[in-house]
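Appendix C reproduces, verbatim, an entry submitted by the partner laboratory led by Prof. M.T., so that reviewers can inspect both the input and the predicted structure.
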Amino acid sequence: MAGHHNCEHHGAAGMSEGRIRISLLLTFGFVALEAFFGVHARSLALLSDAGHNFTDGLALALSWYALWIARKPATSTRTYGYHRVGILAALANAVTLLVIAVFILGEAVQLFVHPQHAQSGPMIGVALLALAMNAGIALGLRKAAVTDLNIRGAYIHMAGDALSAVGVVVAGVVLHFTGWVYADPLVSVLIGLFIIYSSWGIVRETINILLEGTPTGLDVSAMAAAMQAVPGVQGVHDLHVWAISDGMNALSCHLNFLEADTPDAALVVREVKTLLAARFQVTHSTIETECSDCLSHDLYCQLTHPTSDHTYSHEGPCTPEHDH
């Protein structure tokens, strides 16, 4: 059964890689076209959209690299494999977007102070092409983005550019029919604010994963209560739960048993693992069993530095450790 799921995962990753490669070529080709017309039309909105598209190209390149390297097997120096590369790529993409957004906002302020008359025709024509390209790429990545934070970062880049292109079209239409020169920098401000809004969530989620934080949406108290409700389990302590990558959750803990229950510990542990995978999407768990009179009963283990004068200790387990 596990092998079947792995095949599905690699198949989906392969499809995403192919779509990202095609999207990468289209994006960088279009960036050159949009930048040329942005300079020709003297449109900050068009140039800012080209800059956003360029970061999209970088985002797609990083996402493709992360998908490729994640297939490498675990080694003695990378025991979790290379799944975290996708998280680093998502963080790099989001931070790059924030930097671009600050630059766009700064340039927009300058245009409010010293407005320039942009050419509406090239703005509208190129933005319509951008809308078609970015919307098509975003639709191609949307399904994979639901379960992969790395691809989600690239998807947000492309979806954001599609909305940005809509804004450029609106600015071009307003400029063409009214001559209002502030339409261009106003749209640039809206684009910059949207980029900040869409990127900040990815920054927070990736940092939480890198800090070994609790996976988003996981109720640890409810999970611990469900584990303790399994027949034979007397208590749960030294609980740690984290995400190796987006959607790849892991857990380690100690389970307390009555002395008389320890011969069935392996069956109970198996039932707990099934519960964790089915109800809480924790697919990699390491569980140690102990007798009920062991010293520590704290749900969360308070780790100390090896050089600290205070060390954590408890009585040895009643049975050998049960690993996933």
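Strands lie at 235-245, 248-257, 282-291. Additional entries are available on request from the coordinating office.
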